[in-house]
Sequence to fold (117 residues):
Amino acid sequence: DDPELAYVAARARETHDFWHVLFGLGTTVVGEAALKAVELVHTGMPMCGLAVIGGGLRLKSDARQRLTSVYLPWAFRAGMRCAPLMCLRYEDHFHEDLNVLRSKWRIQPAPRPDLRS
Fold:
């Protein structure tokens, strides 16, 4: 019923895939849960927290451990540190280098997984 809230929710859906690229997260369950944690901290939208919990419950124990010990601590830092991202017109920046944008918007890319374990 609230048009402002509806706009924010729509904008979050529209920009979600851009955030995957900006934060360097894949579309695995771990990647989605980590990005939702960034969104939770950055926007305060409670639905993001539910997605983190739901995603975490679907993981096997080793992946859940990686999510909780590596990606969630990173996500909380990254979500607090970055510039306001919801109101950016991403289309105006497609010609810019990804690392330049990350620096400009104070985005800390996700840690690379250690695939040896």
